[in-house]
């Protein structure tokens, strides 16, 4: 079938002239109410033609037509599509029969809608017959929205002319293609797309595929039609297009796809790093997966307004400016590492997610967990000096352990029935826990069988859809062929225990020192200590790696045994024998190869503590040192260990000089800080923190700018992190030095060009200065925000403007955060609110502000209210009294209407608050006494 521009134009020309009825009010309500589309029809190809009008800022609109070539798999009289907030002139809809036997003409007799599921249903004059192919043409138009979802507007200030420059962009994942054009908006309905964009010739049009041809518009002066090549079959959520006046930096590698990095013209000089790193990591994945990147080109573009961090649209990857642009004079090392991780994550999706896509959002984790895990491998390949893989492991586990120890967590693979449930799945469980269980599988399968299983899976399901069982089949086959897994073991049996049930296990390891054995039992680990043991059920297949004080085999991450589950899903206690003598420690879970916590008997903990507090502490692998800190502080929190044991262990940190154990410690100790700083005994905790931090602060030369002489890159991050915490506890000269840097900056004649504050310490210096400073200090930083041209710089400033301790300044800042005229973009509002709510003074203000203004905040974000969930995080970390918890429960109940789209996040916040209250009841007095002994 050939595409004829004439028929498309008949379907199209009306849109500039006609304003028709909005469907939401005009149609009857359909009786079809299932959350999934019917399966009688399949789209084969879309011809999508869109005219975008960007000239009049008061009326930014688009109008277009879509021709969908549809195959009937069963007889039906209905065509059920998705459409949301689109105006469709029903008098212009056409339906033609284009191949197969039977009647040659058809039409649409009436339409109906289902607003719950965004269905737009066309009832046909004659039955569509199985085996026949039809072409449906629908004209549509809408405002270019301000919501950052669907087809939306963005803008930036041109510094030369001081004018606002408008552009358009798309964000369709998970279910917003329906806001841009009528379509079968589910991942399983893959089709080819021929996109044609109409726009003023001063702009550039970009889409998933390369440009095929550009023609003059037939009636609008200075307008063009830009047609793109036909795409490979793909899901609607990966379709992307943009009309903009950006510049690009080319960076194609030999034998590689055409590669370009786009940004607004006054930021193109910040594209160098992304343009260099992107093509390299794309070629690495071609080798890793053994499959060439299937498109002729790939563009990555930095958008001034973008809701997510980035989006993997096939061939046109979209980013926030902070995740694609890098300035050597303004961006810190952690900014650069974050940027590399995001690029590697999105490019991994070109295979995992784009080439092979999950059948339904239940298996979103297959996309996100894989991209998160493989991104770590990609970054490690080109920046081994960052040790980002090890840091990534720890971050993934710390983040997912916290969430997954709640009763209100959810399985990695979870049933989905509403769009709001899809959006709630974009969380630490899908990304971080998903990544951790894949790493576990990689380690127990070994490199060869893991990679050959992945390659088989990708080849079998290329351009199609799959579910996790398909992946398990390919990996089992590879593992059995290579002998990596015994013939009686199946990947599905093992991995379903990790992906289909909520939570993770704690392994209780009790040694019999005279017999040289250890008994292992498992149960679900929960932070809510009121849940009785009988309800902590669950059984996980656990690959057991371990080593002893004599062996120290910390590179052997493969399983030496398995902890299995019975046929009925009960845990089977496991005995390990041939263990060392009573004076030697035993460590399970080498390099945190599996997501579980290990709790030992008192004697084994003591042996470990003795080694850590001796000159031999580095004989334990750095990741396992981090593991011991994280585990013991969790167990002390919930009462499986006492705080005396935990503090004896953390005491060794005075000797520790590595990033990863310090990260584990400071993440956990921050939670104690948030509870204790509201109490009379905070002084003791502060002195304890000073004692731990002073040696490392001095070792790293404190607040002085010694970064150029640091040879190990991860020590740059260690220094950044330590100095930040040191200023919070007034360690050494941290605060006076920070204030001196800030004063120096304020005295600069041109502070926007010359900033004497070391790049990696800017966040700490700004926060410390504003915490101690005046209104003039705050206003000075706000001016720098408004004049900055670097995304990461602006983000650093926004996150530190909440550090003031002046009530009225914080109140003013919160109001700015939710004001469209303030200069703070909607995507950054939550960052500003969190910055206020995380502070001791700001916490009380933000709590009151949210409770009193929930309707206003809801309307500000509507309909994309998922952003509301990130506003809850600082409260869940700080509420610690029963009366505050009850106020939040009442608030959640009274504001049900505004919070219904984030029900899961609200439950998790309330449960976290409950665990804080429990901690205060159970531990506060004991902890306060214990910490005195450790000063």
Automatic annotation (TrEMBL):
Signal sequence region: 1-26
EC number(s) from the headed UniProt entry: 3.4.11.-
Keyword Lipoprotein included in the entry's annotation: yes
EC category: hydrolase
Sites where the protein binds Zn(2+): 345, 349, 368
Entry coiled-coil feature ranges: none
Peptidase M1 membrane alanine aminopeptidase domain location: 273-498
Location in or out of the cell: Cell membrane; Membrane
Domain Aminopeptidase N-like N-terminal: 43-238
UniProt keywords, alphabetically: Aminopeptidase, Cell membrane, Disulfide bond, Glycoprotein, GPI-anchor, Hydrolase, Lipoprotein, Membrane, Metal-binding, Metalloprotease, Protease, Signal, Transmembrane, Transmembrane helix, Zinc
GO molecular function: alanyl aminopeptidase activity; metalloaminopeptidase activity; peptide binding; zinc ion binding
Binding site for substrate: 173, 309-313, 866
Cofactor: Zn(2+)
Pfam family, one: ERAP1_C
GO biological process: peptide catabolic process; proteolysis
An example Gene Ontology CC term for this record: side of membrane
Membrane topology: Lipid-anchor; GPI-anchor; Single-pass membrane protein
Site residues, Transition state stabilizer: 431
Cofactor: record remark: Binds 1 zinc ion per subunit.
Enzyme active site: 346
UniProt key word Transmembrane: yes
Reactions catalysed: Release of an N-terminal amino acid, Xaa-|-Yaa- from a peptide, amide or arylamide. Xaa is preferably Ala, but may be most amino acids including Pro (slow action). When a terminal hydrophobic residue is followed by a prolyl residue, the two may be released as an intact Xaa-Pro dipeptide
Domain ERAP1-like C-terminal: 585-913
PANTHER family given in the database record: AMINOPEPTIDASE-RELATED, PROTEASE M1 ZINC METALLOPROTEASE
Protein family: Belongs to the peptidase M1 family.
Protein name (record): Aminopeptidase
The species this protein was found in: Drosophila yakuba (Fruit fly)
Lineage of the species this protein comes from: Eukaryota, Metazoa, Ecdysozoa, Arthropoda, Hexapoda
């Amino acid at each position: 079938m050939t595409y004829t521009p004439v028929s498309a134009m008949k379907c199209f020309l009306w849109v500039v002239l006609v304003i028709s009825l909005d469907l939401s009010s005009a149609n009857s309500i359909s009786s079809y109410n299932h959350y999934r589309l019917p399966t009688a029809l399949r789209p084969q190809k879309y011809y999508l033609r869109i005219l975008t009008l960007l000239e009049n800022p008061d009326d930014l609109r688009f109008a277009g037509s879509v021709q969908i070539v549809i195959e009937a798999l069963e007889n039906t009289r209905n065509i059920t599509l998705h459409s949301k907030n689109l105006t469709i002139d029903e008098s212009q809809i056409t339906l033609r029969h284009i191949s197969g036997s039977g009647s040659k003409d058809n039409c649409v007799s009436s339409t109906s809608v289902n607003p719950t599921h965004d269905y737009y249903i066309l009832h046909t004059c004659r039955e569509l017959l199985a085996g026949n192919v039809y072409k449906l043409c629908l004209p549509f138009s809408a405002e270019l929205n301000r919501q950052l979802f669907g087809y939306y507007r963005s803008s930036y200030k041109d510094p030369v002319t001081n004018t606002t420059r408008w552009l358009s962009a798309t964000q369709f994942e998970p279910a917003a293609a329906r806001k841009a054009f009528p379509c079968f908006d589910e991942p399983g309905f893959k089709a080819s797309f021929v996109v044609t964009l109409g726009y003023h010739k001063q702009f550039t049009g970009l889409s998933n595929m390369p440009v095929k041809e550009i023609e003059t518009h037939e009636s609008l002066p200075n307008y063009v039609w830009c047609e793109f090549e036909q795409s490979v079959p793909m899901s609607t959520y990966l379709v992307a297009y943009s009309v903009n006046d950006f510049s690009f930096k080319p960076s194609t590698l030999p034998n590689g796809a055409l590669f370009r990095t786009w940004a607004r013209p006054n930021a193109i000089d910040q594209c160098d790093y992304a343009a260099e790193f992107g093509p390299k990591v794309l070629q690495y994945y071609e080798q890793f997966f053994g499959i060439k990147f299937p498109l002729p080109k790939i563009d990555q573009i930095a958008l001034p307004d973008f809701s997510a961090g980035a989006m993997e649209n096939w061939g046109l990857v979209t980013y926030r400016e902070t995740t694609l642009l890098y300035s050597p004079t303004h961006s810190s090392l952690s900014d650069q590492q974050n940027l590399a991780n995001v690029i590697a994550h999105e490019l991994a999706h070109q295979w995992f997610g784009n080439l092979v896509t999950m059948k339904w959002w239940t298996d979103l984790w297959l996309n996100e967990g894989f991209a998160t895990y493989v991104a770590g491998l990609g970054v490690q390949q080109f920046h081994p000096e960052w040790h980002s893989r090890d840091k990534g492991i720890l971050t993934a586990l710390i983040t997912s352990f916290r969430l997954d120890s709640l009763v209100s967590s959810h399985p990695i693979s979870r049933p989905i029935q509403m769009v709001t449930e899809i959006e709630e799945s974009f969380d630490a469980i899908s990304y971080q826990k998903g990544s951790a269980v894949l790493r576990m599988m990689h380690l127990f399968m070994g490199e060869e069988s893991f990679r050959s299983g992945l390659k088989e899976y990708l080849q079998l399901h290329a351009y199609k859809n799959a579910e996790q069982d398909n992946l398990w089949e390919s990996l089992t086959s590879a593992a059995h062929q290579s002998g990596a897994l015994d013939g009686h073991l199946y990947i599905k049996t093992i991995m379903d225990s990790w992906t289909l049930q909520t939570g993770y296990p704690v392994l209780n390891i009790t040694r019999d020192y005279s017999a040289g054995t250890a008994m292992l039992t498992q149960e679900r680990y929960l932070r809510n200590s009121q849940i009785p043991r009988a309800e902590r059920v669950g059984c996980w297949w656990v690959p057991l790696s371990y080593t002893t004080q004599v062996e120290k085999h910390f590179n052997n991450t493969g399983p030496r045994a398995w902890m299995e589950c019975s046929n009925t899903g009960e845990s089977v206690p496991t005995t390990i024998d041939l263990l060392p003598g009573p004076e030697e420690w035993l460590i399970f879970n080498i390099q945190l190869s599996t997501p579980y916590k290990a709790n030992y008997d008192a004697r084994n903990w003591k042996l470990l503590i003795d080694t850590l507090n001796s000159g031999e502490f580095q004989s334990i692998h750095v990741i396992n040192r981090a593991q011991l800190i994280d585990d013991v502080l969790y167990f002390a929190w919930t009462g499986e260990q006492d705080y005396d044991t935990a503090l004896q262990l953390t005491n060794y940190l005075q000797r520790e000089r590595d990033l990863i154990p310090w990260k584990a410690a400071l993440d956990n100790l921050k939670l104690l800080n948030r509870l204790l700083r509201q109490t009379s005994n905070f002084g003791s905790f502060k002195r304890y923190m000073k004692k731990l931090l002073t040696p490392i602060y001095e070792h790293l030369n404190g607040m002085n700018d010694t970064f150029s002489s640091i040879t190990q890159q991860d020590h740059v991050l260690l220094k950044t992190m330590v100095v930040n915490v040191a200023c919070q506890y007034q360690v050494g000269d941290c605060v006076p030095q920070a204030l001196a840097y800030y004063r120096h900056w304020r005295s600069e004649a041109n502070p926007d060009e010359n900033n004497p504050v070391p790049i990696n310490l800017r966040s700490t210096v700004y926060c410390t200065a504003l915490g101690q400073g005046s209104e003039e200090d705050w206003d000075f930083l706000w001016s720098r925000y408004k004049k900055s041209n670097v995304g990461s710089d602006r983000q650093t400033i926004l996150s530190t403007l909440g550090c003031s301790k002046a009530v009225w300044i914080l109140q003013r800042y919160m109001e700015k955060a939710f004001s469209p005229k303030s200069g703070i973009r909607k995507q950054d509002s939550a960052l500003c609110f969190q910055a206020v709510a995380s502070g001791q003074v700001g916490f009380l203000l933000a709590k009151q502000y949210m409770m009193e203004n929930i309707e206003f905040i809801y309307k500000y974000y509507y309909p994309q209210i998922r952003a509301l969930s990130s506003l809850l995080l600082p409260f869940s970390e700080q509420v610690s009294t029963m009366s505050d918890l009850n106020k939040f429960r009442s608030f959640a109940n009274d504001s049900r209407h505004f919070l219904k789209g984030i029900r899961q996040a609200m439950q998790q916040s309330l449960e976290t608050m409950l665990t804080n209250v429990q901690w205060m009841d159970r531990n506060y007095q004991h902890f306060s006494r214990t910490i005195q002994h450790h000063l």
